[in-house]
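Intended use. Records like the one below are meant for learning the mapping from a protein sequence to its folded structure. Do not use them to infer anything beyond what is encoded.
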Amino acid sequence: EISKLAQCSERTVYDVLRLHRDYGQVTNPFSRRGRPRVLDPVDIQYIHALFQTNPTLYLDELQEQLFAARDKD
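Structure written out for the chain above:
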């Protein structure tokens, strides 16, 4: 009856009830949105260390070093 009143499928009703039971809201707060990250935490740490040792690096130099050390474009 709820699905008819809400004009949605029974599956949607059960999904909403499960999300509310599990998270206290009707959306999953842990679901990822958007594009996957290109850089992982180790890459970020590497960039941070580069800037600490040489704060005057240009972006192209940073990219070259990141590619050479971590194989990331």
